[in-house]
Write a structure and sequence with these properties.
The structure is a single chain. The chain is mainly α. It contains 9 helices and no strands. The protein has one domain. Helix 5 packs antiparallel against helix 9.
Length: 197
Amino acid sequence: MIGYNLTGYLIFAFVTTITPGPNNYMLFSYGRNYGLKDSGKLMAGIFFGFMVLLYLSGYSIAGMITKHPTAELYLKIASSLWLFYLAVILSKINSVDSVDSRSRIGFFEGFFMQFVNPKAWIMAIGGASAFLPHFENIHWSVFVFAMIFGVVGIPCMILWILFGDLIERMLKSAKAHQILGIVLFCLMIISIAMIWI
């Protein structure tokens, strides 16, 4: 039974991590503009923020929060505002222009974004409710739950950064970069709309 749950959990972790979402849009954009090396702080922020969220979900804290309508409403509002802010930043990042380091999203933005990222909440709560291992020690169970997601998540994040870097090599004109910025903005707006549907 543990083996079956582990297999299902690995598939769940991979599918939810590799598919598009706010984190992956940011990683793609940063890979396109700054490359893998300079995207490390953002990736680390996303990783550690999501690890904290997984721990909260493993200890059922996240589930308790989302069961209260008022807390869920506040989470939706905060998520929408934060994602809109990120959408504006992503739409303005253009590697053809000179890079302003003040406009970069770094470790702390990536870290705190996880707590208002609706996809991250769904992944953490869904994973905990369906695949949390049940060892005798709850702390060991939560640790294994979080670490498996982390091991699966790191290669997926790197792939999105490398995909952005590849697209950057293919796009040569400022107009193409502008169009891609608009596409990223629209995708983030769709992510916001999905919160309320």
